[in-house]
Amino acid sequence: MLLAINDLHVRYGNVEVLHGISLHVAEGEIVTILGANGAGKSTTLLSISGLVRPSEGEILFDGLALHKLAAHQVVQARISQSPEGRRVFGTLTVEENINLGAFSIRDKAKIARTRTWIYDLFPRLAERRQQLAGTLSGGEQQMLAIGRALMSDPKLLLLDEPSLGLAPLLVRAIFDTIRTINASGVTVVLVEQNAKAALKLAHRGYVLEVGRIILHGESKDLLTNPEVRNAYLGGS
Ligand code: ATP
To answer: What is the pLDDT of residues 178-220, one digit of tens each?
Structure first.
């Protein structure tokens, strides 16, 4: 198992928002975490990234106890997060944003190779490499956030709502690119409100409801599960 979360509890102040969740991700998988607003999806990703400290439980990655590491050590362990809301640096160019993602890598030739790969994945970014990131469209900013996350050469990529606010055609393009990234050997954990698209892309999924995992399984089984269909797929 590449990632194993065991009985994870997270509190913000006095309020516990994750009540003992357990999940695992095998190398090479795309695993999606579904759930309504406030279920704790982002909190789960932030815990993996070391940005939020669990109060109980453990997060194991490739033999490392992630819950004991600082956020920059998690990046060195080759985990990278593309945060919700994109968070690109608006007053820097596309290329400067991309380069910032490589802060954990020393090898200049490797940085150049990865950058070329990212521009191949997202030709729109290549065309706009000198443009200020703040002037990119929403979809382009999303591409930039994912591209920047890839610059640290992650084994595990954490994506928080990559389709948020995007037109359907762009959602398809982003999801196709996530498939390509995964096919190149990067394991992916995908948090999404767009449950149908996420389940079509992912191998397996977990459903989080107010801080607890209520269901998990193969995506094809979740897609036909009546509970999932009613709550997350609009009953369709
Ligand atoms: P969304 O889809 O709306 O982003 P989510 O499933 O990602 O939701 P989280 O962002 O993990 O949910 O939030 C889980 C709960 O924790 C929510 O009730 C939220 O209000 C609360 N929460 C999140 N961040 C903080 C914080 N920094 N301080 C206090 N409470 C927080």
So the answer is: 999 999 999 999 999 889 999 999 999 999 999 999 999 999 9
Q: E strand or H helix at 99, and its extent?
A: helix 94-100
Quote the pTM value: 0.93
* Residue 126: pLDDT band with limits 50, 70, 90: very high
Ligand 1 atom, smallest distance to 39 CA: 6
Question: Domains in the chain and their CATH numbers?
Answer: 1-78+188-236 (3.40.50.300)
Pocket flag, ligand 1, residue 164 (CB < 6 Å) = no
Distance between alpha carbon 89 and the CA centroid of its chain, in Å?
19
Query: Whose Cα sits closest to atom 27 in ligand 1?
Result: 12
In the reported structure, the alpha carbon of residue 118 is separated from the centroid of ligand 1 by a whole-number distance in angstroms of 31
Considering only CA atoms, which of 62, 64, 155 is closest in space to residue 104?
Answer: 155
The answer, yes or no, to whether any atom of ligand 1 lies below 6 A from the CB of 67, is no
